[in-house]
Amino acid sequence: MQPKLKSKVRGADQEIGEVTKVIVDPLSHEISDLVVSVSGTEDRQVPMCAVETVTDGLVQLRMSKADFLEFAPFKREDYVTTHEVEIPHLEDHLHVTPGEVLVPFPELERNVKRRTFFANLTHVIGLFIGLPLAFPVLKYLMKPMYSPFDNGWLKIGNVGKIKADDAGTQFKYKRKVKEAYLPEAEIEKNVWVLKATPAVLEKVYQGKDMEFHDALGKTIWTNKKDVPYIAFSGKCPHLGCGFKWRQHKVLGQVFLCPCHLSIYDAAGKVLDGPAPRPLDPLPIQISASGEVQIIDMEFKAGTKSQTRIV
Question: Where does the chain have alpha helices with state H?
Answer without folding.
Answer: 65-68, 112-142, 198-205
